[in-house]
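Try this one yourself first.
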């Protein structure tokens, strides 16, 4: 870009304002250089990629942790909790999916996000790559303590080729919620 083009671009962008962090879309790409932080995180990655029981396409992708009410899963399925971040696993190897999912979940937990959308794709038969990734997700997601529930997404967000994930509140969000409700009761 030459100097004149840069000036035109800067003039065009003068009145642009930064978006709020309400709708964060984390799109993790394979890092060119691995940072020490991600190397340490991968060393702790508990997600297994061994033998797998393929989940048939007719079986819905669904999970609800102990103590979670059915209404939470119903609202999640209806799309009442809009996704705050998205992860796209289409056309990634199983190992890349495993690593990316682990880093994505760590980042989402660190950022205090509650609702996620994971796009895994939809295969035509049980042995398709998309269904293998889907089957691994069915195994991996319950391994995270933060995951309260997950289910298939609505058609507008990817349908059977994606899933909504609901995470637990982090300690900071719990404290803020407690304080907010305490103020109301006074």
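Now uncover the answer:
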């Amino acid at each position: 870009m030459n100097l004149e083009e840069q000036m035109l671009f800067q003039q065009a962008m003068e009145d642009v304002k930064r978006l709020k962090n309400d709708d964060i879309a984390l799109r993790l790409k394979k890092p060119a250089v691995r940072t020490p932080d991600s190397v340490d995180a991968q060393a702790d990655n508990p997600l297994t990629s061994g033998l797998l029981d393929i989940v048939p396409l007719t079986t819905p992708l669904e999970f609800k942790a102990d103590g979670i009410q059915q209404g939470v899963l119903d609202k999640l399925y209806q799309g009442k909790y809009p996704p705050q971040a998205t992860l796209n696993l289409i056309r990634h190897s199983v190992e890349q999916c495993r690593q990316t999912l682990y880093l994505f979940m760590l980042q989402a937990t660190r950022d205090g996000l509650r609702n996620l959308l994971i796009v895994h794709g939809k295969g035509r038969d049980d042995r398709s790559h998309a269904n293998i990734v889907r089957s691994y997700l069915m195994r991996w997601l319950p391994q995270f303590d933060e995951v309260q529930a997950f289910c298939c997404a609505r058609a507008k967000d990817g349908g059977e080729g994606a899933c909504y994930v609901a995470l637990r509140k982090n300690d900071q969000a719990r404290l803020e919620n407690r304080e907010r409700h305490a103020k109301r009761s006074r």
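Discussion: The CA atoms of residues 101 and 145 lie 14 Å apart. DSSP finds six helices and five strands in the chain.
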